[in-house]
Write a structure and sequence with these properties.
Helix content is 19%, strand content 44%. The protein is α+β, with helices and mostly antiparallel strands. The protein has a twelve-stranded antiparallel sheet with strand order 15-12-13-14-26-25-24-19-22-21-20-23. A nine-stranded antiparallel sheet has the order 10-6-2-3-4-18-17-16-11. Strands 5-1-7-8-9 form a five-stranded antiparallel sheet.
């Protein structure tokens, strides 16, 4: 193998695949990165056997070939090369790298030892604007669980039926829901539970510009866009019946400026209880007061935000992290919180956005928890 490329191309390729590198427990070879070249192209490939990422780049190839390189070393080397042309050449299982005054030699393994890349050819396919897909991912990843024992909630459920596409996630305490009409969906209904890790990589790697092609086949999903292809196993679909979790629109409606409310919640969070993370929204017809209290330091915080509320004077308690995460991913200037009872789930949505809504469970008042 012998080729010449730019340090920018090598850095991009190694950065794209680095988080798919596997553990030696599953297969020792997958803790490495596969590098190959042919016909003025180079390919970077990494896999943990559940997630596979391949990225291609331009190169002047003098001799085609492949090699497997230790991931930790090659990531550091390729990401910190001087700007300019890079010459890469292998002899047996040794690779030599030269860029300006920098020279390196590294022992690798035969390329044929690495699991081959097999893209999805069959299955249903849709094409989606990259910026739109990444925005949907941003809005739904926040409600996935970090509890690895509940693997069925460590992902986003994607449904395609008729002319509607739906993305939904929940950790049992809140739920993110995004639905929109979409032309060109498959004739048959599709339901896929996509791992959070996979969607994090889609969001990280793909640019905002251009389309991303999504292909679903049996127990796999593939994302293709620009210079990168991501293939992932799907999770076993034991996702809860989310339709039963989403409450009806409540009769009480709070409307407030999203940015002002978000910053007020953030400031109040500094003085909230460390364990419960509770803040209280004290609503009145013309304002909402954000209140927090931390008894162990004898502290409290409160801030008044101009708002509209049609329910008189009501208090509702939330986990500030769940509330802040929702407000941060929204883009609308004004948001509304709808609920029927301060003890039941509420719905947050942006004014003028009918696609996204966020269901959030309130925290029960301490006296009710003691009584219950």
């Amino acid at each position: 193998m012998k080729f010449k490329s730019s340090s920018k191309v090598l850095s991009r390729g190694i950065s794209a695949v680095r988080y798919a590198v596997g553990s030696p427990i599953s297969n020792p070879i997958v803790e490495n990165i596969h590098l190959s070249c042919e016909k003025n192209k180079i390919w970077f490939l990494a896999t943990n056997l559940n997630l596979t990422i391949r990225c291609e780049g331009e190169a002047e190839v003098e001799e085609a070939g492949e090699i497997v390189l230790p991931s930790k070393v090659i990531i550091e080397v390729f990401q910190d090369l001087p700007e300019g042309e890079v010459f890469v050449e292998t002899q047996d299982e040794t690779v030599r790298i030269r860029c300006k005054e920098f020279k390196a030699r590294l022992k690798g393994q035969p390329g044929e030892l690495f699991p081959p890349f097999t893209g999805l050819e069959a299955g249903e396919e849709i094409r989606m604007d990259g910026n739109l897909l990444k925005d949907i991912i941003r809005k739904t990843l926040i409600a996935t669980t970090t509890d690895k024992s509940r693997f069925e909630l460590d992902g986003v459920k994607c449904e395609m039926r008729g002319n509607e596409i739906i993305f939904v996630s929940t950790d049992g305490r809140r739920l993110s829901f995004y639905a929109m009409e979409f032309a060109g969906l498959p004739d048959r209904e599709i339901s896929a539970l996509i791992p959070s890790k996979t969607l994090q990589e889609v969001q990280r790697i793909f640019p905002d510009e251009g389309d991303i092609i999504i292909r679903v086949h049996e127990r796999k999903v593939q994302f293709t866009g620009g210079d990168t292809t991501i293939i992932s196993n799907l999770l076993a679909d034991n996702f809860p019946q989310y339709q039963k979790i989403i409450p009806p629109e409540g009769q009480h409606v709070l409307r407030a400026n999203r940015e002002l409310l978000s910053t007020a919640v953030k400031r109040a969070s500094y003085l909230s209880n460390i364990e419960t993370k509770m803040i209280i929204l004290k609503m009145s017809p013309t304002a909402v007061e954000i209140f927090s209290e931390r008894e162990e330091v004898g502290g409290e915080g409160r801030e008044l935000v101009n708002a509209e509320f049609d329910g008189g004077h009501i208090e509702i308690r939330f986990n500030h992290e769940y509330l802040q995460q929702c407000l941060r991913v929204m883009d609308e200037e004004t948001i509304e919180l709808r609920f029927s009872d301060p003890r039941k789930p509420g719905i947050i949505r942006g004014i003028g956005n009918d696609h996204f809504k966020y269901v959030i469970m309130p925290i029960r008042p301490p006296d009710e928890e003691e009584a219950g």
